[in-house]
UniProtKB/TrEMBL annotation:
Residue ranges of every copy of the SH3 domain listed in the record: 547-612
Residue ranges of every copy of the REM-1 domain listed in the record: 357-434
Record's protein name: Formin-binding protein 1-like isoform X5
Cellular component annotations (GO), alphabetically ordered: cytoplasm; plasma membrane
Pfam families on file: FCH (PF00611), HR1_TOCA (PF25610), SH3_1 (PF00018)
Keyword terms, alphabetized: Cell membrane, Coiled coil, Cytoplasm, Endocytosis, Membrane, SH3 domain
Subcellular location field: Cell membrane; Cytoplasm
Keyword flag Coiled coil: yes
Length: 613
């Protein structure tokens, strides 16, 4: 069925229908454009979402957990999803939008031509019909005039009063009118034949051709919409397998999460290596020796203000103006330089170079990771150096390829870097070796507490030796060192001593004091040189025993491995007689059963202070 035969009289309706059809095509194009904008915006927001939730640099340590790794994989899949949405948007733009735009333009131009042709045919038919109508009116008028002329002639011929001439005149008029009527009749018949022929051709050939062309255009539009809808679905289908793989990747990422493994990694990260505290033994005061009883009693009344006159050892006390003021100018300068060196030895994140501020287990892991990193850098630098050496050999063999001297500078720089990396590797290997020598249990915050509660008392001196006051008199070996003692501090000690291991008259790297850990200069326990220097160079006055500023509790055990410091056990309560002046050391005092009081310095980070109001 065709529009030309079935809708021969529906020219105006067909023109309206084809116009609405093209408008509908444009409407679908706008729909695709809006969808394309949504796809583009969705892809951009997905990418922004994945970017905003990317792990920050400070969160890199958490990437070892399976949950964090899975989340990172999910973000990657989200990025891939965004890419596929961008592919959909691009395909819709290239395949659908451009196709619709081209089709709409073509349909509008063809429809305009068809309507122009149809309008021309309609005008021709209307003109012929108008001509036929005029010919018919002229024929009707001429026929009426001829009929009237015939009647007039008959009346004149029967009228006896009229002359022969008058009758002849009426006869002539009649003849003329009859001739005019015949001519009009012939013209009308001619126009009628033309009109019928044109009308037949118009409705049977010309106008159906226009209508059929409009039908073809409308069917082309309809077919185009069908293809565009299918094409849009095909675009989605083309990315569906990739999107499915992205979703599968998300599922696999979720399935890769292992809560047990994450729990183990938490242990690996935060395990300090300390042993749990043992049971606190019962103290039977009736069986305890007076000295231990006195010390125990002192620990319970540390917060009381003392007004006893006296000195640490020789009824004299030295006022500490500053921790570095006990040295001469040369030693003070050396200590300042040593502290600058120590400050420079800190890492970018504020940790010590040898990670001695970390618990043993974590320290070992950090050192092992640093060693592995240095070994990798050494391997890379070695490969680069070997490449430069080969390049130099090639240049020396064939100077046209290049100048060997241009490689010489790079080779020297590479050798310098490699030597520096090897020195750092050896240094960190030394750190690790010393860290491995520290016994795990003996460095536990509870280890020294057990020494006090096992029926004997251990006092430690500046040289690292111990005095065991137990009943059988057996010597107790010193434990493997303190967590506060770092290799960076060993470097400070080397600077103070001029890289000499001789401790006579030298300053302590931990406290900066040059005397015994149980006294200040002039107490009788330092060297003669120190005592003489103390008499001449330090502020020394007769005064009451310094009033305590507060009390402190030891958070960790501390071993007095250098002069000027005193040991302490975890949980021990001491008197604070001078607060930290910015050097990281606090001056404390404890009751001593031998000479009354022990006084010296302990690390501020190892104690918790409670100052009096």
């Amino acid at each position: 069925m065709s529009w030309g035969t079935e809708l021969w009289d529906q020219y105006d309706n067909l023109a309206i229908h084809t116009s609405k059809g093209i408008e509908f095509l444009d409407k679908y194009a706008n729909f695709i454009r809006d969808r394309l904008a949504i796809e583009t915006e969705y892809a951009a927001k997905l990418r922004r979402l994945a970017k905003n939730y990317q792990p920050k640099k400070k969160e890199e340590d958490d990437n070892e957990f399976t949950s964090h790794q899975a989340f990172r994989n999910v973000l990657k899949e989200i990025n891939d999803l965004a890419g596929q949405r961008e592919v959909v948007a691009e395909s819709l733009q290239l395949q659908i939008i451009q196709g619709i735009t081209l089709l709409s333009k073509t349909l509008r131009e063809e429809r305009k031509k068809c309507l122009s042709n149809g309008t021309y045919l309609q005008q021709n038919l209307s003109s012929q019909l108008s001509a036929l109508e005029r010919a018919k009116r002229n024929y009707e008028k001429a026929y009426r005039d001829s009929e009237k002329a015939v009647d007039n002639y008959k009346k004149a011929d029967m009228d006896l009063n009229l002359s022969r001439a008058e009758v002849e005149r009426y006869k002539n008029i009649m003849t003329a009118k009859i001739q005019q009527s015949d001519d009009a009749k012939n013209e009308y018949a001619n126009q009628l034949q033309k009109t019928n022929n044109l009308q037949q051709q118009h409705y049977n050939e010309l106008l159906p051709e226009v209508f059929n062309r409009l039908q073809e255009l409308d069917e082309k539009r309809t077919r185009g919409i069908r293809e565009f809808i299918i094409g849009a679905a095909d675009v989605e289908s083309s990315v569906a397998p990739i999107i499915a793989r992205c979703l599968e990747g998300m599922v696999k990422a979720g399935e890769s999460i292992n809560e047990k493994e994450d729990s183990y990694k938490v242990i690996e990260r935060y395990q300090s290596g300390f042993t749990p505290p043992t049971d606190i033994p019962f103290e039977d005061l009736s069986k305890q020796d007076p000295e231990s009883s006195q010390e125990s009693h002192y620990n319970n009344v540390q917060s009381s203000h003392l007004t006893v006159k006296g000195t640490i050892s020789a009824n004299r006390i030295k006022k500490r103006v500053g921790i570095f003021n006990i040295f001469g100018s040369n030693k003070q300068q050396k200590i300042i330089e040593a502290c600058i060196t120590l400050k420079n030895s800190l890492t970018a994140d504020g940790q010590k170079e040898d990670f001695s501020d970390l618990p043993p287990n974590q320290r070992r892991k950090k050192l092992q990771a640093k060693i592995a990193e240095l070994q990798q850098k050494i391997a890379q630098e070695t490969a680069a150096r070997d490449g430069l050496m080969k390049m130099k050999v090639v240049y020396e063999a064939n100077s046209s390829l290049g100048n060997p001297m241009t490689v010489e500078g790079q080779l020297n720089e590479s050798e310098h870097k490699l030597e520096k990396l090897k020195i750092d590797l050896k240094k960190y290997q030394g750190y690790l070796e010393r860290a491995n020598q520290i016994p795990m249990a003996s460095n536990s915050p509870q280890a020294n507490r057990n020494n006090l509660h096992n029926g004997h008392r251990v006092s430690r001196h500046s040289n690292g030796s111990t005095e065991d006051n137990n009943e059988d008199g057996d010597d107790q070996p010193d434990d493997g060192g303190s967590l506060s003692r770092s290799d960076s501090e060993d470097n400070v000690a080397q600077i103070q001593n001029g890289h000499n291991n001789n401790n006579n008259g030298s300053a302590s790297p931990e406290s900066g004091l040059g005397t015994s850990h149980t006294s200040l200069p002039g107490s009788g326990q330092g060297s003669a040189h120190d005592n003489a220097m103390g008499e001449d160079a330090y502020y020394e006055t007769e005064m009451e025993l310094l009033q305590p500023l507060g009390t402190c509790r030891a958070l960790y055990p501390f071993e007095a491995t250098s002069e000027g410091s005193i040991p302490m056990n975890e949980g021990e309560v001491l008197q604070v007689i001078e607060i930290d002046q910015g050097d990281g050391w606090t001056r404390v005092r404890r009751l001593n059963n031998t000479n009354g009081w022990d006084e010296g310095f302990v690390p501020t980070s190892y104690i918790e202070c409670t100052l009096y109001a």
